[in-house]
Write a structure and sequence with these properties.
This protein has no helices and eleven strands. The chain is mainly beta and 119 residues long.
Amino acid sequence: QVHLVESGGGLVQTGGSLRLSCAASGRTFSNYAVGWFRQAPGKDREFVASVSWGGGLIQYAASVQGRFAISRNNAKNTVYLQMNSLKVEDTGVYFCAADEDNVRAPKYWGQGTQVTVSS
């Protein structure tokens, strides 16, 4: 079992930045790939970014490529999502999730943190 807690969400204006954190506890965190997902009101949850267990493989959704950066610090059991040049369409609840095998279909989820980008 891996327990995930997100933090760092908030209200920001268009063009601003936020850094989300995902703190993990439980099983050896370094064994898990971690992904960030988001869900806007009335829409399905979508993939945002992911990082492999060792940090060597990073993937982004096309909509955030070049603006967001995912990173992890296994010594601190934490994964970060640096979000720059935020747009109104980035608004939503952001979730981190972890899995040993398939980070696109993760087994463990956090409770989410709200990000609101105002125009």
